[in-house]
Every structure is written in C-alpha cells, then in structure tokens.
Amino acid sequence: MGSKAERRIGLLFVLPAIVLVGLFRIFPLAWGFVLSFTDSDGFGKSAFVGIDNYVAVANDPAFRDSIENTLILIATLPIWVMLPLLLAILIHQGVPGGKVFRAVYFFPAVLSTVIIGSIFNVVLRFDGSLNAFLKAFGLIPVDWLGNGATALGSLIAVQLWATFGMSLLIFMAGLSTVSKELIEAARLDGAKPVQIWVHVIIPALRPIIEFVAVVTTIGVLTSMFGLIYVLTAGGPGTATTLPEFLIWLEQGKMNQPGYAAAISMVLFVVMAGLAYLQIRIMSRNANL
C-alpha cells in the first residue's frame, strides 16, 4: 500500500476518466431509466406512468418482431464463429498466399457501416449487380432487400462479411499460442492431422472460441444500426428491425423518448447479462 499522498496522486490521474464515464455513461443510463417511467415527448412536461411503457413494450408487435429477428441472428452464431475459425486454420496451415488472404479478409473490418451499406445497396438492389449476374446465367432475379423472406438473411450475410475479419485475427493469434510440444506429442502417438485439430488444437482454443462467441453476440445486437439504416431502414415492414433500430424509430420518428427509453432498458438488461456471461467465461478460463 502506498502513502496517502501517492493514493491522492493516483486518484488525480484516474479522475478525468471517472468524470467522463460518469457524464457520458452513468448519467445517461440513469436518466434513461427515469425517463422510461414517464410519458415524456422530449419537449413539454412529463408525467409518471409507472410500468406502462414496459407493458406497452411487451405488447408491441414491432418489438416482438425485433426480438424474433434477434433470435434468428443468434441462431446463426455458429456460422459467425466457425467461418473465421476455419479460415484461420487454413491460413495457419500455410496455404499459398495466406498473408494476402488475411489482409483481404480483415479489410472490411476497417470500413464504416455507411460505406459497406452503400456498396451492398448497389450489389443487392433489384437492378443491382448480383441480379445482373444471375440474369447472365438465365436465373430469375431476386428482390434481396425488398422481400421479407430474403431481407434479413441478406443483412446477416453483409454484416458477417463486414465483421468476421476481426474474429479471424483473434483466432490467428490464438493458434500461435497453442503448444507445439503438445502437437508434436500427438503426432508421435500416431494422431492424424484431423485428430490433432479436433482433440488437441480446438480444445486448446476453447477459451478464445467462447470469447469470440460472446463478443460476436454483443456486437450483432448493438452494432448493426448503421447497416440497417442504409440498406433496409428496418423493412420491408419489420423484417429487418432490431431493438436498437426500433429505439431510434420511437425516439426520432415517433417522438416517444419515454417509450424508447423503456426499450433501451430492456436491451440494457440483455447486454448486461451477456457481459456478465463474458466475465464469468474469462474468469473461468483464467483459472484453467
């Protein structure tokens, strides 16, 4: 333990960060919680309405649709994890041009969602390049973004393309930490390459796989607003509406900040639960 003077100096160093977190994280969160119990329209006086906003959220068809879309997203989670893992394995095994592939796969991760959305608007619209390609082979064009049956799948595919490069780098870093002695011992015992990957390398990567799964889940629930806004605006209907986009709709277009705050609090509880899960996973892996 340091002296009181040293502790005061340490406090002074962290004080700016504490102030910033308080102003831009804690205060908005607390204000949103209070607002969720009011009928505020953001301009005039507001009245306390208790849990009416939360009851309305539970009975809102648009919110239910956004939750269903979220569950579909979560159901595709194995793809978000296994695709970068498989690519990382191929690159790690030394396929020709591995460094080039790694750079190409990571490149979309540095692009903004607006740029990505604009690119795929050109690719996926009905008169876009993808349908032109299909027509060239005599296939029927598809309204990728305007059809409720394909819009969410198209959105998921674009988001996956845009983000899996980061997971790829994480897996590449993880593969470099796997004990070479352990792999060599498995080879000496007669294990085949597939058996080494299944029984040695994948178990060694389990903490990283779990971490990527949790982080990816949080990411797809909180970072798709820009892509939805540019590509589909939540449509057709509510086919691509997620809770974060619904919050913006209620706050910005419907001018119902109290109701939007209630949705935000529900989403916050979900995110807090996932964050707790991530902490538990990381703590458990630290004790392995």
Structural notes for this entry:
It holds the Pfam family BPD_transp_1. The chain crosses the membrane at residues 12-34, 71-91, 103-124, 144-171, 211-232, 258-277. Keywords: Cell membrane, Membrane, Transmembrane, Transmembrane helix, Transport. Residues 66-278 form the ABC transmembrane type-1 domain. The chain has 14 helices and no strands. The protein has helices at residues 4-35, 52-58, 61-75, 77-92, 98-106, 113-124, 129-136, 148-175, 180-188, 193-204, 206-222, 225-231, 243-253, 257-286.
Brief account:
The chain is mainly α.
Question: Could you state the order of secondary-structure elements as H and E?
Answer: HHHHHHHHHHHHHH
Distance between the termini: 29 Å
**What is the mean predicted local confidence, pLDDT?**
85
Q: Beta-sheet strand percentage?
A: under 5%
Please, how many helices?
14
Radius of gyration: 24 Å
Q: In terms of structural class, how would the helical and strand content be classed?
A: mainly alpha
Classify the helix fraction into a percent range.
over 70%
What would the principal axes of the Cα set say about the shape? globular
Task: Give the beta-strand count.
Answer: 0
